[in-house]
Specification:
Blueprint (H helix, E strand, L loop, with lengths): L11 H7 L4 H9 L7 H25 L4 H22 L8 H25 L5 H8 L2 H12 L7 H18 L11 H20 L8 H23 L10 H29 L1 H4 L6 H13 L5 H18 L1 H8 L1
Length: 332
């Protein structure tokens, strides 16, 4: 990528300090107290929800003309190139060694390649608003993953109640199709839920990057994702067989890569660095609102009453998982 050689702002000291991909680093991260969200972090979270809410709209437009894996590669490669240029201009090096790059590949798989592919495929058959609502289950899966695989993040009764509410909301969203067998939209909806599960694993794995600059983490994991997506594109949808995208689809993919990926991931990893992965994925609390509004206003999508009812139950579950509202009500 034309990155500078290691200088004063190299990553070697960061790599040694955080102990990426080592048991000692994992145990140190596990012993840390869960960070809190300040005013700045909440403002960044609100901004991020707007950027990622728009991503469902942009993706819906793009997958109408290009296959999902092509949109994944276009999104990640362009965003990685922009962020690589930003790291070069800021004097930061990505020559970080094999252990850190191995961690970038794992993070790219869990945080980008799997969820992007599943969501984009799902959006070939369901609307942007419904996909965003299903994605709002990410904190539910985050609690379950941390409870099972985390070292010191056992779920509290309130969080377990939140998980139960979130799963009930998912059942309401999917509706009778789940009971009737393979409904017309069941598999796309399950794909979006699979993406949320993958995000849950990435929020736990991403704690090891807390000592790195957000720009470095975002660039590394997006670059790794692009390298993994390229052979899949050559296998599943060779570029020379793809039609030229229309002006609208091209604009959607550019917006998806720049605003909703390059800029958004720098903000996301800054929140994760300051407030922890558990707080960072609370952005899905807010994403469905902007995604639903954009889907209705721009694409003319319509949501069934059960979708809105499921969203309300999911939001109740997220509020219980977060715990702040319950704590304030208890104090009062």
């Amino acid at each position: 990528m034309g990155l500078r050689a290691c200088g004063p702002q190299t990553l070697s000291s960061d790599r040694e300090r955080i102990g990426v991909a080592t048991a000692a680093g994992d145990e140190a991260a596990a012993r840390q107290e869960q960070p809190r969200m300040g005013r700045r972090e909440w403002l960044l979270l609100l901004l991020l929800s707007l950027l990622w809410g728009g991503s469902f709209l942009f993706a819906k437009v793009a997958v109408m003309e290009w296959p999902p894996i092509a949109v994944v590669l276009a999104r990640t490669s362009l965003a990685a190139a922009l962020l690589a240029a930003a790291t070069w201009l800021s004097g930061v090096s990505l020559a970080a060694g094999l252990p850190l790059w191995r961690a970038f590949f794992v993070m790219g798989l869990l945080n980008n390649l799997i969820p992007f592919g599943l969501i984009f495929w799902g959006q070939t058959q369901i609307g942007a608003g419904l996909a965003a609502i299903l994605n709002a289950t990410t904190p539910v899966f985050g609690v379950l993953v941390a409870h099972v695989f985390g070292r010191d993040e056992r779920a509290t009764p309130a969080k377990l109640a939140g998980v139960a509410a979130g799963l009930a909301g998912v059942a309401i969203l999917i509706g009778p199709e789940a009971l009737a067998g393979l409904g017309l939209q069941l598999w796309p909806e399950l794909a979006c839920l699979g993406a949320a599960l993958s995000y849950g694993f990435s929020s736990l794995y991403g704690r090891r990057f807390s000592g790195l600059p957000p720009l470095v983490t975002a660039t590394g994991q997006l670059s790794a994702t692009s390298l993994m997506a390229l052979p899949l594109l050559l296998l599943l949808a060779p570029p020379w067989t793809l039609p030229l995208p229309s002006t609208g689809a091209l604009a959607a993919m550019l917006a998806l890569a720049t605003v909703s990926t390059a800029v958004a991931y720098v903000i996301f990893f800054e929140i994760m660095r300051k407030a922890g992965g558990g707080n960072a994925i609370l952005v899905t609390f807010l994403v469905p609102v902007s995604a639903v509004l954009l889907g209705i206003l721009v694409l003319g999508e319509a949501l069934a009453p059960r979708h809105l009812a499921g969203l309300l139950v999911i939001l109740l579950g997220l509020a219980l998982i977060d715990g702040r509202l319950l704590a304030r009500l208890t104090r009062r």
